[in-house]
Design goal:
Elements (H helix, E strand, L loop, with lengths): L2 E4 L5 H17 L3 H4 L6 H9 L3 E5 L5 E10 L2 E9 L8 H15 L4 E7 L6 H6 L3 E2 L7 H12 L7 E7 L2
Parallel strand pairs: 4-5
Antiparallel strand pairs: 1-2, 2-3, 3-4, 5-7, 6-7
């Protein structure tokens, strides 16, 4: 039985492996630059882990098969990264992680989850819409989300392809 728990410090390199593996499908749709992006740094992952904002889904042997890390942006739980090992994709693992974060956010008194993603990649924008997120209009983008989108543009992500989304906390 899969379960979700807080990530441990000794799992951070495994989280990097999962992130790299989960990027491979981008290659198949011609987004090679995205597929080849380096994973989150060990220092960044360690910060999320130490702050209690990194969760993993583990298999019955307690091995991570997916993870999510969360920032606080403009008073919301901002999903910085959610990655599922491709061997476990399309089984609801990512959705359960997002639901877990929503429950955590609600318990913390946060009103919503936010994220930024690719508008038209099927397992990005359309997937998150099915998970209860809605695209924010330009007028709804908060200063912190604007900063996130600007940082993404600075590393080469096409702003025309990016979207900010929001979902109420559970």
């Amino acid at each position: 039985m899969e379960r979700i728990r807080t990530a441990t410090a000794d799992e951070l390199t495994e989280l990097q492996r999962i992130e790299v593996a989960s990027g491979a499908p981008f290659r198949e749709i011609g987004m090679v630059d995205i597929a080849d992006m380096p994973p989150l740094s060990l220092a960044a992952l360690a910060a999320w882990q130490q702050e209690g904002r990194a969760w993993v889904t583990v298999d019955p042997d307690d091995r991570p098969l997916a993870f999510v890390v969360v920032d606080l942006v403009d008073g919301c739980a901002h999903v910085q990264q959610v990655s599922v090992d491709p061997a476990y994709a399309r089984r609801g693992v990512g959705r359960r992680l997002l639901d877990h974060v929503a429950g955590w956010a609600a318990a913390e008194g946060l009103p919503a989850l936010t994220l930024t993603t690719f508008r038209s990649v099927p397992w990005n924008g359309p997937y998150y819409a099915r998970c209860g997120f809605r695209e924010l209009s330009p007028a709804e983008i908060t200063p912190g989300l604007a900063d996130v989108l600007a940082a993404e543009a600075a590393i080469g992500l096409d702003p025309a392809e990016r979207v900010a989304m929001r979902r109420p906390a559970a």
